[in-house]
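User: Structure please.
Assistant: Input sequence and predicted structure:
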Amino acid sequence: MRFRFLATALLTAVAVASCTPGTDNTTQGANEDVPLPGQQWALRDDRVTASEYRTAITRFLACIEDSGYRTSDPVISPIDGLSLLYDITPSGDPATYNERVQRCNLGHLSMIEPSYVESHHKVMDQPLRIAVGKCLERRGAHVSGTEQNATDFATAAHDEPAVVECVTETRQQLYPGLPDFAVVRI
């Protein structure tokens, strides 16, 4: 069985910036807030660029491959136009797989990805925006047609779960070749 993975989610999920570790790119320790050591290079100036994010993804995927698992090439998510999606093909013991993915994630990506994505304007791919709007209208929600991202749809529809469902369903219909798991950030 193939499992697919986006570094910050094992299932399609609603990710809220306040749910990321530390609100200032740090982990809370006993005495102080400390950036994760493998990610300090991108977080030290409190700003993550597209180049730094891509480098972090490259390092994360290399770590996964060095752990013995195959990965796909990353592609831009049509949901936000920022997140990079990819597949990881596990093998062997599930506990070992989970430990290695978590180690690579914490070492290279866990704080960089949300810092990058949450600090940039998200724009959903136009065919997906149109399909999500139609899906929400079929559910009785009012949308204006000017929504640019999942947050705009959630504001217009007043129904975050419906937005997540519509984004997930329509993304899978419109982009069946993309990795299955993606984060819907509202």
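The helical segments are 40-43, 50-66, 94-108, 112-118, 126-138, 150-157, 160-174.
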